[in-house]
Amino acid sequence: MPKNIEGKPQFEAPIEEKQKIKPIEIKKDKVIVMGVEIPRNPEPGPRTPKAEKFKNFVEDEFSLELLKKVATGVYLDEPTLIEGEAAIGKSFTIEYLAFLANQEVYRMSLNGQTDTTDLIGKWVPRSEDWRKKIEDLYKHPEKCRNLEARKMLESIKIQPPKDKEEIAPEKFEEQPKLGLTKEEMQRIAELEGIPISESDWVWQDGELPRQIENGAWTVLDEVNTCEPQILVRLNAVLEKGGELVLHEDADRIPKPKDPNKKHMLFATCNPPGGRYRGRVPLSAEWISRWNYQNVGEMPLETAIFRAKKKGGCKVEISQEKIKEKIVSPEPIEEDLKLADIFGEEWVSNFCEKYIAAFYKIREMINKGEIAQRQEQKFDYDQRDWDRFEEYIRKFRETGNMKKVIEDAVEYTILGKIKDKSDREKIKDVVIRLIKVSEPKEQIPKERRLQERYLKELKSDILDLGLPEKHKKIIMES
Question: On the chain, which terminus has fewer CB atoms closer than 10 Å, C or N?
């Protein structure tokens, strides 16, 4: 069995296949999945999945495409929500990428019993005996002897929605409280006759703050079965560059202890309704906060391929199909705009066309021409336009922008659509609307790299504590 640089099993394609195309490459500091490059930690952590878990992982077109979607979400720094049928490898694929990248990953299954204190944290007594008492009241407010105390604890809980009822946390007339402060917990203890002084309380982080500080990946399974107030609490984290603010703990914001590690948030769910009882639709507005990918069910040909592969048959992936899906994003400065690269004329024309395409898709959805068989409703809004532009900017490839635009349509637009015929309808419309000429780069790559080097050099010099007049000379040079 092939080994990676650390001698671990490297579950990749057979040797004869690797000589043609390598869908997965593992290097010392990075992992490349179908051309998409993400960082790799030098060493695995305690929660990095073990190689043995993936001994039966089969590289086929479906699994590689799903792996590429996850890797692209990491590359674009987007929280990714994957919807699909049961047992097709949603969470498993995220864990597999974590294994390849030496990344720690935590899975948390959400359900009607999960509340914000599990995910975010809570105030508890230092004393273990009183802690058990308070934690029991957190879970079972009905055990309170005092009505006021009970109401305070019930304020952070609401009943799960009924089957088929849409979870729309941002539209509740009366929003549940997100948590209880130290002072509120002190008041509850007093009402319940629990002798805990004000100084005997400690804040206990929930799963999410701990994982953020560890720079780990968080996977929230079955996200459409949990109570809505949990979803509300995730809103700030889901924004671009979003942070978790612990209002209950003096507005503390958890940060990764190791600046070289970055926390990523993933979620998975089964399609709402039908045979998946208890799975209810999420609101389209909340869905738009995620990089939402609907992967549907495993194709019959994939299931047959995997059965043959696991049964010892010599079957191979189509090299041509894999080649079509491999992308090679070029390095690009974070603050460089599309107009800096391709010029205002081309970008202006491109923006007019892709925004018109998004409006056309929304019109098709509203008229019932597409996505009518999807229980989970969604929309295309400002966040999707931004994702589309970001994909174009970060994956841009000189001389091959037509293919990059097609890939952007596939990932950011068609990724939400389950039905194959609907995907084809949208693709025909969008590709026709976003028909632009191949642009020419305005700034040569070599010049951009040189300017970036000079900018970093100036920054390093300014950090040396020079007099202001010398700094001014350097900045104007």
Answer: C
- What pTM was estimated for this model as a whole? 0.84
- 129's enclosing H/E stretch is helix 128-139
Do the bridges between strand 217-221 and strand 264-269 make them parallel or antiparallel, or are there none, so unpaired?
Answer: parallel
Both tokens of residue 208? 């999410």
Which positions ≥6 away from 51 have C-beta within 8 Å? 8, 9, 11, 99
For 83, list phi and psi in degrees, rounded to 5.
-110, 135
- Rounded to an integer, what distance in angstroms lies between the CA atom of residue 13 and that of residue 25? 10
Q: What is the DSSP letter of 399?
A: T
Asked whether 365 and 430 are in contact (CB, 8 A), the reply is no
| CA–CA gap between residue 412 and residue 234 (Å, rounded) | 21
Q: Which two tokens stand for residue 355?
A: 């925004």
Query: Residue 83 is inside which H or E element, if any?
Result: strand 80-84
C-alpha distance from residue 232 to each of 244, 347, 443 (Å): 12, 36, 43
Each residue's pLDDT, cut to its tens digit, for the chain (477 residues) gives: 445 545 555 555 444 444 568 899 999 999 999 999 999 999 999 999 999 999 989 999 999 999 999 999 999 999 999 999 999 999 999 999 999 999 999 999 987 677 788 899 999 999 999 999 999 999 899 999 999 999 999 887 654 445 445 555 544 434 445 689 999 999 999 999 999 998 899 999 999 999 999 999 999 999 998 877 788 889 989 988 889 999 899 999 999 999 999 999 999 999 998 888 888 899 999 999 999 999 999 999 999 999 999 999 999 988 888 888 887 777 666 667 888 888 999 999 999 999 999 999 999 999 999 999 899 999 999 999 999 999 999 998 888 899 999 999 999 999 999 999 999 999 999 999 999 999 987 765 555 555 555 666 666 665 566 676 666 665 566
DSSP state letters, 242-283: ----BGGGTTB----SSTT---EEEEEEPPSBTTBTT--PBP
Give the SS3 label for residue 267.
strand
